[in-house]
Write a structure and sequence with these properties.
heterodimer, A: six-stranded mixed sheet, 11 strands, B: mainly alpha, MetI-like fold, 2 domains
């Protein structure tokens, strides 16, 4: 049984101009000790689906799911008291902006202590010892001094380390990291990722890493979910995803990696932006930016084929999971820019 | 720790230095204000009988009003630096003594009014923020808008008519029933009655405080409730509140510890600013309820053109407001570690 088992998760927000669907029909399975990465651009609903799992969305959000279970317990059915025992204790989360994620009014020690007290208890002294130990574990020099520091006295990297210390303080079985390195310096990013992976391995906890950085995915994850505009468009193991992306969006993300663009004078980009509430296209949501889009794509919403393990949300998935080579991109040097995309020059898997 | 104390000391010194220009401005305004009013203190003293020109000139010389204004101002300033604000033209006793014999009554009234405003306003604001957009929220916002717009004298009269007149629950005026005579020790009627060990008198004093405190506290209550609500709403959207919820804390703890603590920073500023408003409001409230504090004293002094009392009283009130604001600045440092360190 998967540790986290989510099926058919949808999140809608009540806005002034009606309901906005931020996440639709997302499935997530994470096993004990697994590392899952959720990738996608800003606005693809990566954070929202995880915040929904944690129960952290504002009251304007309407969350529905066919199944939303943590270790066999249905999160939707639990009382808020029971759910709070899981949230923070068994399943914890760190966020994108470490500097603003710590309460400015309390010391680092107080904030870690509060978490331990909530879930593990223990005497004041034990909790203090534990907090010191945690700070050392996340690589904070001179924990005895830092434990008395206020958040504004810490750098971004230090704050994120404190957040990690707090998140792992109660030995969670699942840690959700929501773009944990986005707000940090490049040099610090690598350190924080390394730390997360080290802790994941040592503690044997599962890790969900939300990111928009394919490079991070390559270095960290075992399983990858690609999300676009609130939909899950593809799900694969990291190796086969990099070798044989099935969804044109994944392919575009990969070709935007600087390593893959070596020899080209310009880094390929994906034209346009993720559609928002008011500019949703008909048919496939990715069609305006897709270099392979056909009239069929513009009219009919795709569904994943039942026999597709990657569950690709595309009318014309690329390649085959059994290792068939991806089709060569058309000769067009600026993919997707031409107003008349050429018909795909590749065998159609399905009409 | 020593360096922290030193920083704090410096902070206070800087703040005090900043008060000096304000204070000088206040003395000029206070001095000029009463002299700009039409009416002459000596003529008012003489009343209907009138006064001869010689006697008038003699009295003017006696009080120093015949000297040029800058000289008079200089004398006033000199006296002020020596802690001497002159003698009242009416009672001939020192202004400082008159002021401070009445000030405790005003302070007691203001403290009760402020307590009323904070005790009701703060929870109302917090509840409105939590129940945002619900009936409770609209009720709090509506009532506080009404309270804020309410003219004090009208509101006071309305309450007197209803609670004292129709229902007969509360006394109409004064600080304590005439049945009791309490030797002033602190000047606070509630404390003095307790010191005298007279429960009946204590209850009577409280009884007399209720209506004036409500009247005086209404506007601060509205301001505090609104500020608390908007400040809470702002903080509720902060990342660290989400972190607090992600820790699995109870919503009570998330709101009362993580949110309110941060929201209080701006609420405390607003509470501090109410002190000036309270002293201004006290003038009206004390007049309505015949409360023997500085408000009533000031009104009497103004109507008699008692120059030394009015200018002295204004300077003292301004001084007190400035000191309170300084204390608020310091309290700010206590609740906001970003300022302290």
């Amino acid at each position: 049984m998967a540790l986290l088992d989510i099926a058919g998760l949808s999140v809608r927000f009540q806005t002034n101009s009606g309901l906005f669907t931020a996440v639709e029909n997302v499935d997530i399975q994470v096993d004990h000790g697994d590392v899952l990465s959720i990738v996608g651009e800003s606005g693809s609903g990566k954070s929202v689906s995880m915040l929904a799992t944690m129960g952290l969305l504002p009251w304007t959000a309407q969350v529905s799911a066919e199944r939303m279970a943590f270790d066999g317990q249905d999160l939707q059915r639990l009382s808020s008291r029971q759910r709070r025992r899981i949230v923070g204790g068994e399943m914890s989360m760190i966020f994108q902006e470490p500097m603003s994620s710590l309460n400015p009014c309390f010391t680092v020690g107080t904030q870690i202590d509060e978490m331990i007290k909530q879930h593990k208890g223990g005497s004041r002294r034990e909790r203090h010892e534990r907090a010191l130990e945690l700070l050392a574990q996340v690589g904070i020099p001179d924990p005895a001094r830092r434990i008395k520091a206020y958040p504004h006295q810490l750098s971004g990297g230090m704050s994120q380390r404190v957040m990690i210390a707090m998140a792992i303080s109660c030995d969670p079985r699942l840690l959700i990291a929501d773009e944990p390195t986005t707000a940090l310096d490049v040099t610090i990013q690598a350190q924080i990722l390394e730390l997360l992976l080290k802790l994941q391995e040592e503690k044997g906890m599962a890790l969900i890493l939300i990111t928009h950085d394919m490079g991070v995915v390559a270095e960290t994850a075992k399983q990858v979910i690609v999300q676009y505009a609130g939909r899950q468009v593809e799900q694969q193991e990291v190796k086969s995803l990099f070798a044989h992306p099935r969804h044109p969006y994944t392919e575009a993300l990969l070709s935007a990696l600087p390593e893959r663009a070596a020899g080209q004078s310009r880094l390929p980009t994906i034209p346009g932006v993720v559609p928002g509430q008011h500019d949703r296209p008909t048919g496939c949501l990715f069609n305006p930016r897709c270099r392979y889009a056909t009239d069929h794509c513009r009219e009919v919403e795709p569904v994943a084929a039942p026999d597709d393990p990657a569950r690709t949300l595309c009318h014309y998935p690329l390649g085959r999971p059994d290792g068939e080579a991806s089709p060569e991109p058309s000769a067009d040097p600026s993919p997707g820019v031409s107003p008349e995309p050429s018909s795909p020059s590749r065998p159609e898997v399905r009409p | 720790m020593t360096s922290q104390t030193l920083t704090m000391f410096k902070f206070i010194l800087v703040k005090l230095a900043q008060l000096v220009p304000t204070f000088i401005g206040v003395t000029i305004v206070a001095f000029a204000f009463i002299r700009l009013l039409p009416g002459d203190p000596i003529l008012l003293m003489a009343g209907e009988r009138g006064i001869s020109a010689e006697r008038y000139a003699q009295l003017q010389a006696q009080f120093g009003f015949d000297r040029p204004l800058p000289v008079q101002y200089w004398e006033f300033l000199k006296g002020l630096l020596h802690g001497d604000l002159g003698n009242s033209l009416v009672t001939h006793s020192p202004v400082v003594g008159e002021f401070f014999s009445r000030f405790p009554a005003t302070m007691e009234l203001s403290l009760f009014a402020l307590a009323f405003a904070v005790i009701i306003g703060l929870p109302a604001g917090v509840l409105a923020a939590i129940r945002r957009g619900k009936t409770l929220d609209h009720t709090v916002v509506g009532i506080s808008l009404t309270g804020y717009s309410m003219p004090i004298f009208w509101w006071g009269l309305l309450l007197i008519m209803f609670f004292s007149g129709t229902l007969g629950w509360t006394p109409v005026s004064g600080r304590i029933s005439f049945m009791y005579f309490i030797e002033p020790v602190t000047g606070f009627m509630t404390i003095d009655t307790l010191l005298a060990g007279d429960w009946g008198a204590f209850l009577s004093a409280l009884h007399h405080l209720i209506l004036p405190a409500i009247v005086l506290g209404t506007i601060p209550l509205a301001v505090i409730a609104r500020q608390t609500r908007s400040s809470m709403l702002e903080v509720l959207g902060e990342d660290y509140v989400r972190t607090a919820r992600a820790k699995g804390l109870s919503s009570y703890r998330v709101i009362m510890v993580h949110t309110l603590r941060n929201a209080l920073i701006s609420v405390v500023t607003v509470i501090g600013l109410q002190v000036g408003l309270l002293l201004a409001g006290a003038i009206l409230t004390e007049t309505i309820f015949s409360w023997p504090g500085i408000g009533k004293w000031m009104i009497d002094a103004i109507s008699r053109r008692d120059y030394p009392s009015v200018q002295g009283g204004l300077v003292l009130i301004a001084f007190i407001v400035m000191i309170v604001n300084l204390l608020v600045d310091l309290a700010y440092g206590v609740i906001n570690p970003r300022i302290r360190h």
